[in-house]
Amino acid sequence: MLTMSGMEDKKFGRYERQTMLPEIRTGGQERLRAARVLVVGTGGLGSPVSLYLAGAGIGHIGLVDDDEVSTTNLHRQVLYAEAEVGLPKVVLAARRLRALNSDVDVKPYACRLTPDNAAGMIQGYDIVVDACDNYPTRYLLNDICRAQGKPYVYGAIEGFCGQVSVFCRTAEAKSYRDLYPDEEAAYRLPPAFKGVVGMTPAIVGSVQAHEVMKLVCGYGDVLDGRLWTIDLRTMQSYVIEL
């Protein structure tokens, strides 16, 4: 007959290396198992974010994306393989996460987040991770997370640089509109993509995933109202108060 300790070992054995940490232990692992996280975008940032969340044992992960895999994705979007070019990302991503951790409930949404579907979709989750690449979606995520009281884990990349913050954690917390207050000016910016090395989203997405863990388990200093930035060319990083 299994003792309570034995049952915990069986349930959380795969997470032994993180439950050894006093910040997590089995109580934190239980919270991770109960957590519901929505990842918007399954590309460069969404790949490491979703993989590390699934690996850590987040119990329920939603994935939102309407794109298909292209060959130019493969140097940074580590969820996908050459043989999957032309196939829908979100379906492949869900399959990959389930293969990594069968204990995780993964729900794919093969669509674009819009004003018509966003509120209902976000309502079912505790935390929203921004792994998208456009201003309209970010403002939409921000405003709905603010209205629903959901933490919004923001990340953005370009070239060798990236940034992460946590918005809307409380009613008084900073939001994406404090970082980019002029929405109309943001929409007028040229959409040209200036390129990126694969390591940039790998690092930034990993930091986003860790902010989720900190929010769920309640340890460390969350980037609430602060902006973390990094430049991989110089390896300089800063945390800026917003």
UniProtKB/TrEMBL annotation:
Protein name per UniProt: ThiF family protein
Q: Name one Pfam family in it.
A: ThiF
Q: Name one GO molecular function term.
A: thiosulfate-cyanide sulfurtransferase activity
Q: Which CDD domains match?
A: ThiF_MoeB_HesA_family (cd00757)
Ranges for domain THIF-type NAD/FAD binding fold come to: 15-236
Which Gene3D superfamilies would you find in this protein's record? NAD(P)-binding Rossmann-like Domain (3.40.50.720)
Homology family: Belongs to the HesA/MoeB/ThiF family.
